[in-house]
């Protein structure tokens, strides 16, 4: 069995059987391609069914010099899943990563922005520029709805249910959920739709996409990162801010103000409550306040 054949079969499995998104499949494939490149560059005569633990160990050791422990752990996990699939399909009987341990890493707490910092970013937007109204609506939507960047770029006009105060979001694995939307965010999105969007030469295939670039195409993930980076510099913030920072801030601020963890899970689109529970570690003072307020033994 050749590497390309095995990788193609695996990506089909991830898409069809596991229902993973395009971005998730790309991430899984990227790690496997690293191993393939290593085998080819070192003229190793091993295919997916014959590669052994020692070869994989040597590969991981070589790449560990250029990546951090968290990335190394993700790499090992991704390769382990790949070889588990080959075992499941009877291409192999053993997993070469069974005896390889992942590096010990601490649980990374999400970075967040304060409300004051979010206001500073929004204030830094130049509303005299044609993209100003759009960018303000983008930041407000990221923060007020807790969206992933891919969920934001894929948001459609037909996903807006403003009369019901909800938007329909398509998340990982094409799973859909309804997320509440605030009056302020509705206001900024509506301003963009009415004042800016009519002047954009929209390309037909993107006609239902909400946020467009000036050429009428769907915004890319990279463009959202660039917009945020420029606003951070303009606002003078000394933090590393990404689209995901707004999602973390959304969840943290909800929890700090007394929101139920289960409700936060549903709005974020987390499949497991354990993923959402990381926010319980962000503000321990809030947990103490909850205990003193609600526990009968005060």
TrEMBL record:
Xref: NCBIfam families: PRK00283.1, recomb_XerA_Arch, recomb_XerD
Quaternary structure note: Forms a cyclic heterotetrameric complex composed of two molecules of XerC and two molecules of XerD.
Top-rank lineage group of the source organism: Bacteria
Entries under InterPro entries matching the protein: CB (IPR044068), DNA_brk_join_enz (IPR011010), Integrase-like_cat_sf (IPR013762), Integrase_catalytic (IPR002104), Integrase_recombinase_N (IPR010998), Integrase_SAM-like_N (IPR004107), Recomb_XerD (IPR011932), Tyrosine_recombinase_XerC/XerD (IPR023009)
GO MF, one example: DNA binding
GO cellular component, one term: cytoplasm
Domain Core-binding (CB) intervals: 1-87
Role: Site-specific tyrosine recombinase, which acts by catalyzing the cutting and rejoining of the recombining DNA molecules. The XerC-XerD complex is essential to convert dimers of the bacterial chromosome into monomers to permit their segregation at cell division. It also contributes to the segregational stability of plasmids.
CDD domains: INT_XerDC_C
Record's keyword terms, sorted: Cell cycle, Cell division, Chromosome partition, Cytoplasm, DNA integration, DNA recombination, DNA-binding
Record organism: Winogradskyella sediminis
Tagged with keyword Cell division: yes
GO BP: cell division; chromosome segregation; DNA transposition
Tyr recombinase domain sequence ranges: 108-292
Protein name: Tyrosine recombinase XerC
Gene behind the chain: xerC
UniProt key word GTP-binding: no
């Amino acid at each position: 069995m050749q590497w390309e054949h095995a990788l193609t079969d695996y990506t089909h499995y991830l898409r069809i059987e596991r229902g993973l998104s395009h971005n998730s499949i790309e991430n899984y494939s990227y790690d496997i391609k690293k191993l393939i490149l290593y085998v080819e560059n070192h003229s190793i005569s091993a295919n997916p069914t014959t590669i052994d633990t020692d070869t994989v160990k040597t590969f991981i050791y070589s790449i560990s010099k250029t990546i951090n422990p968290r990335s190394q752990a993700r790499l090992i996990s991704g390769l382990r899943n790949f070889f588990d699939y080959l075992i499941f399909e009877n291409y192999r009987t053993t997993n070469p990563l069974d005896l390889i341990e992942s590096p010990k890493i601490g649980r990374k707490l999400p970075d967040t922005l304060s409300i004051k910092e979010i206001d500073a970013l929004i204030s830094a937007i130049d509303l005299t520029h044609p993209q100003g109204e759009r960018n303000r609506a983008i930041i407000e939507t990221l923060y007020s709805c807790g969206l992933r960047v891919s969920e934001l770029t894929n948001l459609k006009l037909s996903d807006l249910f403003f009369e019901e105060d909800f938007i329909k979001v398509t998340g990982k694995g094409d799973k859909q959920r309804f997320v509440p939307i605030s009056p302020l965010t509705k206001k900024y999105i509506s301003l963009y739709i009415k004042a800016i969007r009519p002047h954009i030469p929209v390309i037909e295939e993107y006609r239902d996409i909400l946020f467009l670039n000036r050429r009428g195409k769907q915004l890319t993930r990279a463009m959202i990162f660039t917009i945020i980076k420029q606003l951070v510099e303009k606002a003078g913030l000394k933090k590393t801010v990404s689209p995901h920072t707004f999602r973390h801030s959304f969840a943290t601020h909800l929890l700090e103000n007394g929101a139920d963890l289960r409700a936060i899970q549903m709005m974020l689109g987390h499949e497991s409550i354990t993923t959402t529970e990381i926010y319980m570690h962000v503000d321990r003072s809030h947990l103490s306040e909850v205990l003193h307020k609600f526990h009968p033994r005060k």
